[in-house]
Amino acid sequence: MITRTRSSLMHLLAACIASLAAGAPGQGAAAAAVPTPPGPELLRGRCGGCHLQSGGDHFARISDIRKTPEGWLMTIVRMQHLHQAQLSAEERDTLVRYLADTQGLAPAETAPARYALERRPNVKDLQLPGDLQTMCARCHSAARIALQRRDAQDWLKHVHWHLAQWPTIEYQQNARDRLWWQKATTEVPQELGKLFPLHSQAWADWSQRPHADLSGTWLVHGHEPGQGDYWGVATIARTGDDEYRQTYALDTAAGEHVSGESKVILYTGFEWRGSGTRAAREVHEVYALSEDGGSLSGRWFEAAHPEIGADWQAVRAGPAQLLAVNPSALRTGAAARVIVLGSGLDGAVSFGPGTHSRVLERTAHSLSVEVRVDAAATPGYRQVSVGRLSAGQLFAVYDKVTRLEVSPAFAIARLGGGRIDPVAAQFDALAYTDLAGADGVTAVRLGYLPVRWSVQPYDQQARAAQDEKFAGRIDGTGRFLPAAAGPNPQRKFSGNNAGDLAVEASLEDMAPAVTGKAHLIVTVQRWNNPPIY
Ligand code: HEC
Ligand code: HEC
Is 73 in the pocket of ligand 2 (CB under 6 A)? Predict the structure, then answer.
């Protein structure tokens, strides 16, 4: 029955991941002599043959579900792959947009599971209540479920589809410890229908709201694991209905200038999906516009390696505000050039008691300040003030680093082989000074300092198998680059290059050196990488 091969599914998935943002009309405009019909017409023409239309514009199944753009994309790709639904790439893009706009999720409904849309690696999945977690989130993330809305009777249909698709589901998910089928067809759809119902006040309100216009100047700041903080200015220009072009110029903590641009579709009035280049890297952007339309936040990542990416925070330039300070901490006795990012940065500058500041340069949205810290200054957070603006936790003074927090604390990297690229693991070390005071210990966040990275075997077994020698290597930025997959004749029983490792960050300009640890599993390839894991 299923004539398409696995590789054709992978091809479809790969193409569709790229298409979500890159598919802005205009891209296919040259080829499309005949314009793509609008959403409702496509639903009738491309889906209505199987999904019965009734009562005007209700299509069986389709009209009973709300999903994110990625959720709609995955379903339509499945319609193409499993049911041979016929539609062009442009038609699919149009339908995804139409369905995400008319049957999407409200911002608040996506909030708990955005990490999955942002393709964050090594995140702890949200926990569904009761038995739902074991029933439904053993094969894929709970986020995949929490990013959909249906009533109990449609959740039940979805369970039926699971069983029809994978008749061995009960064994496959290791669920012989319970009456899987009985539960899956009674309690599970009932509970899901209550937790994630089709109709909600949040969506009723949001779907009535006019879409904001994002055009203008935005101030940006973020942190790229392994590379450090960055900040700068972005210009967003409207190119069509819910379509934008963004250009930006950033400075990094390492002293580099990075420029980039992206083409953006704003789905559902707040789901920013951009594609473009950042320096020489091809990247995708998954951001959410805040409900008040004033800020954007999310993550960008490399198109070919979603595990490599960074947070992105942007606010409209204009309202007077202090946004970020970099570096965010200085040691007693030190002097450095510090950048303050914000709007309305007029007036006198102060970094608080025990510091001396001199403004070197003022631009529209930043200040460059020489800050000197007295050798005897008291460690702790400082109030940074510029004119009438001030912020309490953006800058700190320290005399020693007492703790390094390595993140992620637990990570998975994957060996590369054949058509599957390796999946790297990027570590980062956040420095703190823990100050004992009258009311307990205050953790003062100092930011990211240069550290030395190393890997060791995690336990006796890993030591005996010399995992640290075979599984890969960690570079100076804390990025673990896995080895190649497949049998290795140099290993016992010609084993794979999998490994169980302890990752260590060490700050050596402290005496004694301060260290932080994480756990890394290096395992085999993952063959199927849909947009929502
Ligand atoms: C050739 C028949 C066929 C066509 C054409 C088709 N579908 Fe389906 N669709 C099915 C079948 C069969 C199911 C139930 C099994 C399943 O979920 O795969 C289904 C299920 C669905 C579901 C419910 C899936 C879920 O999440 O539980 C949605 C939504 C859907 N289709 C959307 C679409 C859209 C949108 C189109 C048009 C692009 C489309 N379908 C075209 C046959 C089709
Ligand atoms: C045996 C493994 C397995 C179990 C157990 C499982 N799923 Fe899935 N599920 C899958 C796979 C594989 C897919 C992807 C299908 C595709 O897109 O081709 C999927 C897809 C989904 C999707 C997205 C599909 C769409 O078109 O909207 C949802 C939602 C979902 N599952 C919910 C559930 C729920 C609810 C349960 C518990 C009743 C569950 N899953 C249990 C394997 C499983």
Answer: no
Tell me, using a 6 A CB cutoff, whether residue 6 lines ligand 2. no
Name the residue with the closest Cα to ligand 1, atom 36. 47
Assigned fold of 403-523: Immunoglobulin-like (2.60.40)
Given a cut of 80, whether residue 3 has pLDDT beyond it is: no
Give pLDDT tens digits for 313-330: 999 998 899 999 999 999
- The ligand that comes nearest to the alpha carbon of residue 166 is 2
| Domain 216-315 part of CATH 2.40.128.120 | yes
Q: Which residues line ligand 1 (CB under 6 A)?
A: 46-47, 49-51, 61-62, 65, 75-76, 78-79, 82-85, 87, 95, 158, 161
Q: What is the pLDDT of residue 512?
A: 85
- What architecture is domain 321-398? Sandwich (2.60)
pTM: 0.94
Single-letter code of the amino acid located at 500:
D
HEC string of 121-175 equals: CCCCCCCCCCCHHHHHCCCCCHHHHHCEECCHHHHHHHHHHHHHHCCCHHHHCCC
Question: Is 321-398's fold the same as 403-523's?
Answer: yes
Output the CA angle 116-119-124, nearest 5 degrees. 55
Ranges of each domain in the chain: 6-104, 109-205, 216-315, 321-398, 403-523
